[in-house]
Amino acid sequence: MNNKILLAMATACILASCSPKETPSDFRYSLDEFADLEVIRYQIPDWESLSFGQKQYIYYLSEAAKYGRDIIWEQNFQYNLPIRKALEKIIRTYSGDKQSKEWQDFMVYAKRVFFSNGIHHHYGEHKFFPDCPREFMESLFSDADCDKSLLEIIYNPQIAPFRRYQGEGVDLIKASANHLYEGVSQKEAEAFYNAMEDPNDPEPVSYGLNSRLVKRPDGTLEELKYTTGGLYGKALSKVVENLEAAAAVAENDVQRKYIAELVYYYRTGDLKTWDKYNISWVKDTLSAIDFINGFIEVYGDPLGFKGNFEAMVNVRDEDASQRTVTISENAQWFEDHSPVDPRFRKAKVKGISAKVINALCLAGDTYPSTAIGINLPNADWIRKEHGSKSVTIANITEAYDRAANEKENSVLKEFAWDEAEIERAKEYEYITDNLHTDLHECLGHGSGQLLEGTPSNALKEYSSTLEEARADLFALWYLADPKLVELGLLDNPDAYKAQYDSYIRNGIFTQFTRIELSKQNTEAHMQNRKLIADWCYEQGAAQNVIEKRRRGGKTYFVINDYQALRGLFGKLLAEIQRIKSEGDYAAGKELVEKYAVNIDPELHREVLERYAALQLKPYRGFVNPDIVPVVKNGKVIDYRIDYCTDFVAQQLEYGEKYSTL
Ligand SMILES: [Zn+2]
C-alpha cells in the first residue's frame, strides 16, 4: 500500500514500464560504489518536449521537495544534522593527503552517512561506524573547528545503536534513536493517541502524523507540529514559498486547488486539511505532472504514528502509458485468441490501463534510496471512498536495469550461456520485461471466467500462486505473438526470445539467490515462476526444449526450441485456466506441491555461491539530475537538465543550498 511494500513487490513482481529510450552512448548509469551501496543516475526522457510552463512548474515543485531535506535527517536522529554539517565542513576544507587510507575511510563513512540521511543504515537501521581511527577523526574535527563532542556519538556503540528498534520487552521509543518523541515513554505515547482516536469515526484522522510528541517539565504531553510557524518552520516556509510559486505556473486549476490545501496544511498543521488535500490529489488523474510532498510513511516510527518527510516530482511517461492503452484497447482480441478452452474465456473482457511515470526529483525519505512505485494515499478510508493512485516509475526501473548490465560482473553475464544470449538480453530484455508486466497486469489477471457454480475461493491456499502463474503464462504466450509487432509494441518478431531466456533462467535457477540454503520456496510470485519453468523443463525433456548444460563446473539452462516452449506455455495456461474455472483444488495442489516448492539443493548452493562471487552491492540509490534555470538578460528563458557526475558534490550542494539551519 505504500512505497516500501511496492519496493518489496518490485523484487517479487518486477513492475516496470516504458520503452527503452535513446541514451547517449557515453552515459553511465552507475556513478559510485562504497560499503554495501551503489549510487546510480537516472535519466529524464523527453525533457525537451515539455513546455516552458511545465518546466517552470517542475522546477518549483522540485525546489519545494528539496527544502524539506533537513527534516528527514533530524527525524532520523537528533544529532544527524550537526554530524552532517561537520562532515561537510571537513570535506570542504581538508588539505591533507587525500590518497591516505585514513582519508579514504573517512570519505566512505561520510558517503554512507549521506546515503542513509544519517548515521544509521538506511535499510538495516543499525548504526554504522567509520573505519578510520578515532584519533584521525578527532584531528579532522580539530582542524575544521567542529564540535568534538559529536565524536562520542559517532564512535560509541552504546549510544543510539538503532534508529528504530524492533524487539520485545523494551520501551520501543527509548530503544529507538529517531527523534519523533522526546522524554515520552511508549506507554505514555500510546495512551495519548488512544485517547484521541474515535473508533466510530468513518473518516478517522491520522493523529500524530505531523508532529513530535514531547513531555513538558510539569509532566504533561504536548505535540509540536511541523508547520511554517512551528517545528522546522524555516524549512517549511521555503517549501511553502516554492509550492506557491509552483501554483502560479501550474498546469490547471485542479493542481492549484490541492496545492492551496497543502499550503494551508503546512501553515496550520491541521490533519483534516491533510485528508482534504489527499482527496483532491487522488482525484487528479489527468495532469501530466504530479508530485508528493508531506509527512507520509510511518515506518520510521516504532509505534507507527509519525510520518517521515518525503517528496517526489514526476511526469507521466506518455509512450509507456500509451502502450498500456493499446494493450487494453485490444483486450477482446487477446481474450478471443488465448489457447484456453473457449468455455473458460470471457465473452466480454475489459483491459485496464496503467499509468507510468518518470521521476524528476527525489527528496526527503525517497532520496537517495527510493521505491519503484507509488501507491498513495495511505489512509484506508480515503482509499476506500476516493481511490488511490498506483503508478510505476519507469526511469528508475530502467536505471536499475541499465546499471546492472553495465558491469563487468553482471548477473546476466554470469548465468547466460553465450554472447548471443547476452546481446539479446541487452537489446530486448528491458522492453519485453515491461510488456510482460503490462500483459500480466492489464490483461492476464482479468482474463478468463469461472464456470457457473465454481466458488471463487475453491483453490484456497494455492490460489495466489496459481493466479500469478495464470497471469504470467498469459503474458509469456502473447509475447511471442506477431500481434505485438502488428500493434507496434515490438519492432522485432524475435524480441520475445530475450524474455523467454530470462524467465526460464530466473524461474528455474537464479531467483533462489533470495532464499537461504535449505529453505523452501514460499512466496507466491517466486513459486509461480518456479512452477512454470520446472514444468516446462520436464514436459519438454523428450524434445530437449530446455537443456541443462554444464561448463567449467557451472550449470546453465539453455532454450533449444523457442516455439516449442511457447507451445508449452500455452498448454500450461490452458490447464491452469481449467483448474481455476472448474475449481479443481486437487490438480492445483499437485502442480504447486510438485513444481513450485522444493528447491534442488545442489542448484541452490551453486547459485548462492556464484552470486556471492559477483560481489554486487545489495543496496542502491540515486542522485538527482539538476534542473538548471537558463538565464538571458536577467530573465529565465528555459530550464536545462544537467546530469550529476559526483555523488559527494551533490550532497555538498544540497547541504549548502537547502539547509535552513
Ligand atoms: Zn500479478
What's this model, at a glance?
By secondary structure, the chain is α+β, with helices and mostly antiparallel strands. The strands form 5 sheets. It has a 5-stranded mixed β-sheet. The chain has a 3-stranded mixed β-sheet with strand order 1-2-13. The chain has a 3-stranded mixed β-sheet with strand order 3-4-5, with helices on one face. The site of zinc ion (ZN) has 5 residues, from helix 19.
Please outline the helices and strands.
Blueprint: H1 3-13, E1 30-34, E2 37-41, H2 52-66, H3 69-76, H4 80-93, H5 101-116, H6 134-143, H7 150-155, H8 172-175, E3 181-182, H9 186-196, E4 211-215, E5 221-225, H10 233-248, H11 253-268, H12 271-283, E6 289-295, E7 309-316, H13 318-329, H14 331-336, E8 355-364, E9 373-376, H15 380-386, E10 389-393, H16 394-406, H17 411-415, H18 419-444, H19 463-479, H20 482-486, H21 496-508, H22 524-539, E11 546-551, E12 554-559, H23 562-582, H24 585-595, H25 601-613, E13 619-623, E14 626-632, E15 635-642, H26 647-657
Parallel strand pairs: 2-13, 3-4, 8-10
Antiparallel strand pairs: 1-2, 4-5, 6-7, 7-8, 9-10, 11-12, 14-15
Helix pairs in contact: 2-10, 4-5, 10-11, 11-12, 13-18, 18-19, 18-21, 19-22, 19-23, 21-22, 22-23, 22-24
The chain binds zinc ion.
